[in-house]
Structures are given as C-alpha cells and as structure tokens.
Design brief:
The chain contains 13 helices and six strands. With 337 residues, the protein is mainly alpha-helical. It folds into two domains: 255 residues, Rhomboid-like (Rhomboid-like fold), CATH 1.20.1540; 65 residues, no CATH class. A two-stranded antiparallel sheet has the order 1-2. A two-stranded antiparallel ribbon has the order 3-4.
Length: 337
Amino acid sequence: MTIQQLLKTAPVTTLLLASFIGLFIMQVLTGVDANNPSTESLLNWGANALPYTMQEQPWRLVSSAFLHIGLMHLLFNGFAMYFFGQIAEPMFGSAKFLALFLLAAIGGNLLNSYITWQDIIAGTGQPGLSAGASGGIMGIGAALLIAALFKISVNGMVLNFKSLIFIMGINLVYGFAVPGIDNAGHIGGAITGLVIALAFAIGYRQRLAVALQNAAIQQQRHINPYQTSYQYHTQDNTSYNSQYNDQLDNQGHYDAEPNDQSPHLDANSIDEKVAYDDYDVNTSDMHHTAIEPKALKKASFIWQLLPWMAMLLISIGFVWWWQDIHQQILQVLKAIE
C-alpha cells in the first residue's frame, strides 16, 4: 500500500506514523543517540517516569507513546502500527481509532506506574522510565481480537481470530522473555483495548440486527409491493334465478314446433342464462383491503454512543487512578519529611 493509499484509507494511522518518525528525527537532529539514547534525553523528550508523571506532569502518559528508545524500537512499533492501523481504522472509524490508541497508551502507562509504585512500597523495585507506542498498539491488536471474535468485517473481509491470537501471543511472550520491555504497559494497553472494543462490538451487533431486519422488509416490498385481501358477500338470488328460469321455460314452450313438444333454448338464451347464473356474487358487496408492509425499524441511538460512553467511563477511571497514586505518593513524601 502506497503512502497516498494509506492516507486515504487510514489518515490517523498515517499521521501517527509520521509523528513517530518526525519526533525521532528531531531527537537525532538535536544530538540524541539514535540507537542508545540517554535517560536524560528521554526525560527531556517526554518519557514516562513515576516521579514526574505521578506528580506534576501527567501529560507524560500521552507524550511517552510517541517517543521511542532507539531506531529498532521505532521500526518494530512502526511496522506494527502500519499493519494494525490500516485494518482497525476503517473498521472503528478514525475518531474512535485515535481515542482507542490514546486511551490504551494511557492505560498501559498507568498500569506500569502502579506496579512500579507497589514495588517501591514493597521495597522490591525502584523508579524507572518507559516510552513507546507499544501500549496503544497492543490496545489496537486486542480490539481487533474482539472484532474477529464477533466476526466484524472490514471491506467485506473477516479477520482471522487464530492469526491475531498468535501475533498477540508472540508480543507478550517476547516481552516476558527479553528484559527491559514494559510488560505492564502491554497488558494495560491490551485490557483497555478489549473493553473499548467490546462496547463497540455490542453496539455493532445491535445495529446489524436492525439493518438485517430492514433489509428483509425492503426485499419483501420489492418482491410483493403490496398485499391485498378480498372479501365477498354472496346474496341469495334463488328467487330471482327461479323467476328467470320460469321465463326461459315458458319461452321454450311457446317456441316448440308441433312435432317437437320438448322445450328448447337458442344459443343466446343459454349464454344469457349462464351469465345470470354465474352472477350470484354481488360485486357491490366486494371489499378490497390493502395490507400495509411493515415499517422500517430504526436502531437506537444508544448503540452508536455506547463506545464513546465506555471511553468516557474509562477516562474518568484513569483520572481517579492517577489521583489515587498521586495522593499515595504525597502521603509517603509527607511522612518522610
């Protein structure tokens, strides 16, 4: 896929990739080592670090998602973003995709900070720093897992659940096997992505059910535009037909020849009699009733808002989580003083 095609299909993915690469180039141009950047330079460029992020610089929860520690880190995350983004963005929509990435990145950084803080309290850890888009990308990958599980298609293509499980599993195993990788960030991002995608999938299923019902109604209208029912009220014409038959019989008696005393009817009389005999149904009492086709259904607006409501609740939860860790740190510092 060319850059023009990617920009048209997944504009947010393109902008995210451009921001990753652009920020890395700016780092290198200002003297940061491309392969082994220093801790000081990473802090200056917005890495996630507990003493800073959990006190007065919570913006590092977001900025660290655009910062990468070395060229290989950038290439790995850039390829993952390119692979996942061109599928996930058309599926979820650009706005939801961007919110998903940012919230998953924040969720990963918060879990990293929480675990780091718990280790510090337990005396088994010390403050460190983290950076990279891995948390957000793992959130996107987890969201695609939910999409594959619910058989949500993108451009008529349904994702392969087993393949996605394999890719996500490799990332998690690699994170635990290789030291220095932010496993908490990966897991926190994946959990956040799962929750958001689950809300999206439930809303999608509800809207799809309504769309299928409307399609069936439209098909019924196309095949049978209107349905009618007819009701006939028969009238007892026995006396009338009896009188008419007597007239025909008398006419036959008068027309009989001397040698042929049996009554006879000419062709016109027979046709006329048959016509009257068949007209036992009174057309004035015939009723025509039109059966209106079923009205099209409309999906509840709540299903479209469900993903945004889930993301709003997650955001509120993240603010509370940050405040909780922040207050704990302040209490410990106050106790030390």
